[in-house]
Amino acid sequence: MTLIGKMYGNIAQPQTKVILSAAALSNLKIELLSFEYGVTNQSPEFTQKFPLAKVPAFESLDGFKLTEGAAIARYVSSLVPDAGLLGRSREESALVDQWVHFAEFEIHMDASMIYAGAGLKLLPGYNADLHKWHEERVVRSLSDSITLADIFLATAIQRIGQTTCGAAEREQVYPHVFAHHAKVTSDARIKDVFGESGFIEERLVYN
């Protein structure tokens, strides 16, 4: 693999999983730096390079700096066009962007709200109506060969399997959705990046 730079991020963070997966599928390597949230990203050394103090934060070998997970993942995917992560035409590339946006904002965001509200109990004011609203928005499906959109969707579906869909829902209601997740995350090049799914037996309910 060809080293292209280094990145601050946490492997448990979905955006970090996406970026490292995009690199691996392109036969590229990114050095993942040790990181402690609230400490590393508030240090003068970090904020001098990344003033917004956000992670993941990427720096290429030639000093190009970038934050925001989708932007970093797209940049990494663009380095090896033949890998096909951004599609093979302008139209396919636009569709990849469409589904990346869909996975991030129509699936993962709602699943994360359920995770924080019903799972971790971290959201004041979270209630049964909000839970139902997020739950109704949360599950969709996608496609065939692996693109950057598939990786984003797989991270979103992983969160769904940790919140909204227990074993019964995964096996009986949305088998094709979770088959897509299994297909993407079983790829030998990125299997270690995704790690254990953390799927739950019973879906989280608000009580």
CATH topology of the largest domain: Glutathione S-transferase Yfyf (Class Pi), Chain A, domain 2
> Count of helical segments?
9
Return the domain count.
2
CATH class of the largest domain: Mainly Alpha
User: Roughly what fraction of the amino acids lie in strands?
Assistant: 5-15%
The poorly predicted ranges are: 139-143
Mean pLDDT: 88
Which structural class best describes the helix and strand composition?
alpha+beta
Ends apart, CA distance between termini? 49 Å
User: How do the SSEs run, as a string of H and E?
Assistant: EHEHEEHHHHHHH
Fraction of helical residues? 40-55%
Taking all Cα atoms into account, the compactness measure Rg is: 17 Å
CATH architecture of the largest domain: Up-down Bundle
What coarse outline follows from CA principal-axis ratios? globular
Largest sheet: 4 strands, mixed
Number of strands: 4
**Strand order across the largest sheet:** 2-1-3-4
Domain GST N-terminal: 3-84
GO cellular component, one term: cytoplasm
Pfam family, one: GST_N
Protein name: GST N-terminal domain-containing protein
